[in-house]
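ugh ok fine here u go
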Amino acid sequence: MKRPSAARWKRLAGISLSGLVLIGLGAIALVRADRAFPPPLEAASDLSREVVDRNDQLLRAYTTPQGLWRLPMSLDAVDPDYINMLLAYEDRRFRDHWGVDPLALLRAAVQFVVNGGRIVSGGSTITMQVARLIEPRSERSLSAKLRQMVRALQIERRLSKDEILSLYLTLAPYGGNIEGVRAASLAWFGKEPRKLTLGQSALLVALPQAPEVRRPDRQHAQARQARDRVLRRMQESGLIPESEIARASASAVPRGRRAMPDLAAHTADTALKSMPEARVIKLTLEQTIQARLEDLARETAARLGPKQSLAMVLADGRNGEILASVGSTGHLDAGRAGAIDMSRAIRSPGSTLKPFIYGLAFEDALVDPATLIDDSPADFSGYRPRNFDRGFMGEVSVSEALQLSLNVPAVRLLEAVGPQRFLARLRRGGADLQLPPGGAPGLAIGLGGAGVSLRDLVQLYTAFINDGAARVLHDGFEDGVKTTFEHPVLDARANWRVSNILSGVDAPQGAPRIAIAYKTGTSYGYRDAWAVGFDGRHVLGVWVGRPDAAPLPGLSGLTTAAPLLFEAFARSDLAPVKFAAPPRGLVVRSRSQLPFALRKFAPGQDAAPLMAGVSLPPRIVYPPQGARVALTSRGAGQLTPLVIKLQGGAAPYRLIANGEPLAKASRRRVLNWTPDGAGASTLTVMDAEGRAASVSVFIDAD
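structure:
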């Protein structure tokens, strides 16, 4: 055999080198072209915004600016059988090819020729379908197909197989404005795609091929045929047993679209406005409870009169997290002004603030739960309150006065503790009552003569769960929200006394038997009905009325709002939590065990004119109101005594510390008291004529 000449070797080497150079230059050109004209993957970033609950369950979704329902989808959030069925039907070699499947293209070409130029299958891979979805073109031509193939190769260079599949699951069309398997599963079946049945999976595999032709709500027969065709293919491939195929083929195909999840509309809208850049916003709400309370609101709307609405707020009183918030009977209920979030509206609270008046009176040792108080007609400088039933009960215990929500006793106590001080205490719980324009705080604020929202009212009532310290209510989307307030609304002993009294109020007739404490309220003119209840952890508030504040004769907190409160507590299905035990050192006493001056409430005489032979009332000059006093520790938890200095009054004097009278009275105006530990304390001195003076101090231990 003759060997090639040296010249021929040189010629072959030159050709090979030129070929390699051309291949290299071609590769460089392709890479540069790929970089210069990348696939428009950013088109897939235009997604629906979502509001989810504390467990990442969908509460509400919003369409894209183009009006599409497009929810992102990951592989681990969809039923595995659906994925297997999709790949087996659409792209069996998806995991092996580089974006284009030559065998599928060859098969499509043969079918095209055999069927006389009719397209039987397009040979498109899932990657090519993604290319078409991110860069849609109306024409079906060879150039469009070639463009898809190039784009598919580009996509495969940039994304993993799982990422490409997730993109398909997000963008595939399922009829109308539904895109992506998650939106499709919610719209056609009302469930998340991880819970799909075999028949449902088959329908969702079939729909993207011809979404409008196979829409179940418009082309029901075609949708069933397409689903069954997918199931037969699965049977022929041996992927699914024949018995399962038969069962899936017998299952129903939906005839209409379901509404997308639409819970907590008012809260969700507020969250979206507060966080305009966030696509997914997580709230503290719990989807199951929210849905149950919204169902109750819709059911109740049928029993309410026209144009009446309601609102409910349920919170975890220990941390302030809102578990459910219903702003109306339905945000689309125009006849009831459903678009208005009545949980945030400022309305007259009726008698719902009375418990805090009694709490202040307990703090000041003005009364004890067993103290008698007069419920009879009274004139407070022209203000003459009457009870809801316009009757009077005479002498009742303070506990009974609160449980029966009597008006005159509450005003008597408010006059004693002072309206300004009462408002200041409510501000400690974040409730800044709205007074009438130009109006100074008067005694009417105790009976609803000021405005407050349902959310703020529920926030105030969290104090009864936390030894008098309210928790800040929050939905979860607020930035840097604090959970506690700096100062308590009530001291722990007074707080427990009020809670204990309210826990003894009888449930409304026919209401579920639930161990909760509650208070009702009805505003002036029958415009608002309220009920606020709590157990050892949860606080639930209910408001009923007309958003336009028109009067509703017959409306009342007891008959309208309270039954709804108990039903809402029952439907929330929360595990009951026991009330807190009495604070250390608190003693519950009968009236006969009380000091004489506490057996019946007598208003103070500070403002009475001085007369000959009448002494000035007692006054504590040290420590002053609000003082912080440092005492030296003696060890073993013992502190040095606190010196208390008095002026005025008639001896003997009795000191009452934190509601507990000292054993002996003293005729001296300098008293000694040894606290049992550091913390807030209320000191009251009562003289021989039953007149009293009080200060609140804080003891520090050095």
